[in-house]
Amino acid sequence: MKRILFPTDFSEIADNAFLYALKMADSLEAEIILLHTFDMPIIDGAEIPINFKEMYDTLEIQQMSHFKDYITHLKQIAEKNGMGHIQMSHLLKSGDLTYAMQDVVQEHNINLVVMGTSGVSGWFDSLFGSQTGEAITSLTVPVLSIPVEAKYKKIKTIAFTNLYREKDFEALQRLVEITLKFGATIKSLYVKKSFTSLSDEDIKAWEERCSAWPVQFFVIPHDDVKETIQDFINNQHIDLLTMLTEKRGFWEDLFTSSLTQKISYKIEIPMLALHENGL
């Protein structure tokens, strides 16, 4: 059985993302592992109390009590949406969330991480450098990030940002497998910058390999990647944006130059970040 990791801080942002986690678990026949992390109080090294373990145990008990109350709340959400059958378990860890997720991904063979993100200052800008951004660049499994503005609706159309490399072909192939479970279609987007060396013949040969897949291909000449992606999402009625990430370099190449222009891009749909070893 596949496993979905759902980190939560008990917030409304997490609640909003949980419905997507449920729907993914239902479609992929997966179980959900809930994760909550907490921080220990900062103590001067010269003044560590003798009863430090007792302090830790007390805090852990308090956190677990809150966690169990919250789990009841999540189960009610699942029941209300007809997904009370989804299997769930929970983990409580102290320390940094990113490190905790890395441990859980390895220890529990996680296939997918679903987490909420705030889009207060713009979707791209808030994701870059955020905790969700850290998860995307540091974890080895796909991360589905859910903006707080995204209210769940059936996923019918999925956008895939394409660079027409072999690794993109392999990622698209994995995405097709997921898409078929949703009964959705994929719209592949290649933003063709003015200095690209990719020929029309290369693109045609690449696309011919995918002729049996439920994929439409769009090649749009433009030098502003972010603006083109946003327009594509709006004009093509995209429900889920999918990108193949390449660690930190991906975000730097795609976003950094445009960030200096101080343009705020507001995208209110989920994004699935795939890695080369994917779902």
From TrEMBL:
Domain called UspA: residue spans: 1-146
Pfam families associated with the record: Usp
Annotated InterPro entries: Rossmann-like_a/b/a_fold, Universal_stress_UspA, UspA
Family stated for the protein in its record: Belongs to the universal stress protein A family.
Protein name: Nucleotide-binding universal stress UspA family protein
Organism: Flavobacterium lindanitolerans
